[in-house]
Amino acid sequence: MEKYISIGKIINFHGIKGEAKVGFTKGQEDFVLGLKEVYVKSGAEYKTLEIQNVRFHKNFAIIKFKGIDSINDLMEYKGTLLFVEESYIRDNLEEDEFLIDELVGLSLFDENGNKLGFVIGVSNNGASDLLSVKTNSKKICLVPFVQAIIKKVDINDKRIIINNLEGLLE
Fold first, then answer.
1. Is residue 169 part of a domain?
2. Tally of structural domains, the chain
3. Does 167 reside within a domain?
4. Which residues constitute the domain of residue 30?
């Protein structure tokens, strides 16, 4: 059974010709432009919406779906999350990109092999992603997900090796 991942939300309509005003993650414009279809959840089922056109206005994507030609056609989708198949996202990840659910639960080690804690969440401060780490002393610390600190992510071995800079996990 295919898993789906949310990539945006239909906030409202845009104009009168059935275009949707869609909120999405900042910096993902190229990803959104590359989409041919998305899914909306209806009960336990996922329904396909084929994308006809995408453009951007302010901080939103304006998406025209095939077969949705008026405000009335779009109203049933207002407030609905848009999904893509997880396999599509995995196929389009860069070498140093990961899904959040892959990182949560991974153990954190320093370069000497000492276990420092484990990842309990991922957030973004606008400049970079941040790993929320629960340390061995039960403190929760934020670790920037940047190359200067993150040395290796090994999904298969469920571990992240970091450059444990002084004061990072205090």
1. no
2. 2
3. no
4. 4-91
Rounded to an integer, what distance in angstroms lies between the CA atom of residue 5 and that of residue 83?
Answer: 5
Q: What is the CATH number of the domain that holds 76?
A: 2.40.30.60
Give the predicted TM-score (pTM) of the model.
Answer: 0.72
Alpha-carbon distance 59 to 106, whole Å? 33
DSSP β-ladder status, 115-124 and 107-110: antiparallel
Collapsed DSSP state (helix, strand, coil) of residue 83? strand
CA pair distance 119, 160, nearest whole angstrom? 9
pLDDT tens track, the chain, 170 positions: 678 999 999 999 999 999 999 999 878 899 999 999 999 998 889 999 999 999 999 999 999 999 999 999 999 999 999 999 988 888 888 777 888 888 999 999 999 999 999 999 998 877 788 999 999 999 999 999 998 999 999 988 999 999 988 888 87
The order of strands in the sheet holding 115-124 is 140-144, 129-135, 115-124, 107-110, 159-162, 150-154
